[in-house]
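Supplementary notes for students who missed Thursday's class. We covered one full example, reproduced here. Read the sequence, then the structure, then the short commentary at the end.
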Amino acid sequence: MRHRRLLSLWFPRLGAERVLRRRADPLERPFATVAGHRGAQLLDSVSAPAEALGLRIGQGLRDALAACPDLVTEARDPAAEEAFLSALGRWAEKFSPWIAEEPPDTLVLDVTGCTRLFGGEAALARQVTQEAADLGLSLGAGLADTPGAAWALAHHGADGGAAVLSGDAIDQEARATRSRAARRPPPGRGPAGAPWMRIAPPGGTREAVSGLPVAALRIDPATAAELSRLGLRRIGDLLDQPRAGLARRFGRPLVERLDQVTGMAPEPIRPIRRPERFAARMSLPDPIGLESDVMAAIDRLLAPFCARLRGAGQGVRRVRLELYRTDRSVLRSDVELARPGQDPGTLRPLVEMKVAGLDAGYGIDAVRIEALATEPVVPRQVAAPGGGAEAEPVADLIARLGARIGMDRITRQHPADSHIPEKGARILAAAWSDPARDWPAPPTPRPMMIWPPEPVAAHPEPAPPGRFRWRGRDLILAHAQGPERIAPEWWLDDPAWRTGTRDYWRVTCDSGDLLWLYYAHGGTLPAGWFCQGAFC
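Structure (token representation):
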């Protein structure tokens, strides 16, 4: 029987080592990234030297600086960490085409049938750990028959137990890696950051995970703490326990995780389907700060950026501009288009609006643009009748307005299937809808302006009143046309229609006002006269 083989790659210091890899000079001092949590600054990721000094994730920044005054910190960048994990996923494609991301710091590879291409599982382990060390990354890796077991070995394999090591060859390679790291440490890493891998032989998953702590089951920390208080500290302590008793005491999630780690319950992995990415970047020899200099750099990027879009038959609907400042912070701004664009002349004025409001700080040393959303663009003959050329200026206007006030604030109306006057149109985003054509004609003329019903002081009779008071004015009826009876939607409980059936009249006053009045026959609310619109 052929066993499925899953490889889990855990990068425990991904946030800190992502920053350290970008430094031109090696940083020997302890380093950590910091994130805000409920008004406090906490360590989010620490380097190997910082961890060796006792600093830990979740520790307060003040306590960390008190324990280690030489600590160097930088604000966490979640978007950059997510992009870095995706980049590591592309690196891992050399080992398997079936890769899933488990943010924020784990990759899962299905290496079934792939290990023979590398000379076996031990040789694959050597190559993975060696390349991780060359990249300056800490790595915990686990290889097993199930995703849960691979995750447990990667995250908790260093805790000891019955986890099966990768063999003498891998141990020798790990010692050689530590020796090389000691002689020539990568930036921010020392011997403590050497990668490791644990391999469970095919069919030996149960024995491999038995000695791991119960936290390796990916259960709630409170459940793991309660199990530990009862003396059930290892996965092996739970494997022989009755499932019914565990489910009653700790809930179904614990039993499901046990079955997943041993292969008794399926646990599918969702591989990444990587779309084609369109981006362009420029690193500057000296920092810049003037708007004209930034736009000059963007002009040099837009030409190849749009050329790639045209070559792929794609148009961009959302563009992200990234300006990298010398203080290692990143300014990001998104631009949305009303129609797919692939022309620098269309993108440039929209990007220029965003550049005008950005603070360059001490200078910008890199500029990057990326397409966040694209759509296929089909070539069309715009000069032909009905080709749609008249819509291009409107789309450009919508994009310019959207860059200033927000694309969601620009709307257009489309006809709706309802006999209720105020529901005769629906509002759509102008950037994501075409102009409405062939509006259905109403049974009777409708006013140009419609507002929520306003009470009218008049005699409570169905016939149009000769005199009435509305908005503080006394008006005299000159002519009335109607009625048009409209009944409420009986299948809906609309508070605005609790006055029952309405008789609408087109009323002309001697003052020249053309109003749309209706008489409500009464329902759960009293009957009476109301004004809901005005004709031009």
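Commentary. The CA atoms of residues 196 and 327 lie 34 Å apart. Residues 161-192, 383-389 have pLDDT under 50 and may be disordered. If anything here is unclear, bring it to office hours.
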